[in-house]
Amino acid sequence: MEEKLIQEEVNEIRRVLNKLGMPGFKLTDNDKVRIFNEVSTMLYKFVSIKHPVLNVQLVERDKVFNNDFNPNKVAPPEFRLLKHSILTDGVTMPVVVGAPDVRGCVEIIDGYHRSKLVREHTEIADSLKNYIPVVAIERKKEERISASVRHNMARGAHQVELTANLVIKLKGARWSDEKIGKELGMDPDEVLRMQQLTGLAEAFADRKYSKAWE
To answer: Collapsing DSSP states into helix, strand and coil, what is residue 116?
Structure first.
């Protein structure tokens, strides 16, 4: 397609958006957010690059819920630094969530502390008009657990004992040691060690001890 035709189409999109922003339309913040979310989804489909970060959505903060499995904890100094970063530079990373339910509510996979600041810090909440930028990945419960672990382990932020508890949850979902290792980036000995830390022998009854543990 010729550059001139592409630019004409881009200009047309710009004209439509400028028109919607004119005083005569009297759009509310909710109206603007709805338009943003729909355009974001359309562009995501249009560009055909299947990475969630390219489809940021704005979700009302009261519809973003914590999960019951994320073991990542941030010490007070780091939390204060995160707050300062957001107040200074704005939110630069969306919160990762699961797919919305029928009410439009989402469960956090990664980004609990960012969402906590949006919910509890008035200045930050006001700057985002009480919305939280999120990207959604469609995963089953146990897959959301493993995704949460991966995000945190990639930052070196996972506590060993809590990671071990998550491994047990995945075992309860009938995940094999091999699948757990693959999804969480652990070698066989690490998977075994996480299970041993819980003291639940039955959790790793199907696992042979490696030479490292003999």
So the answer is: helix
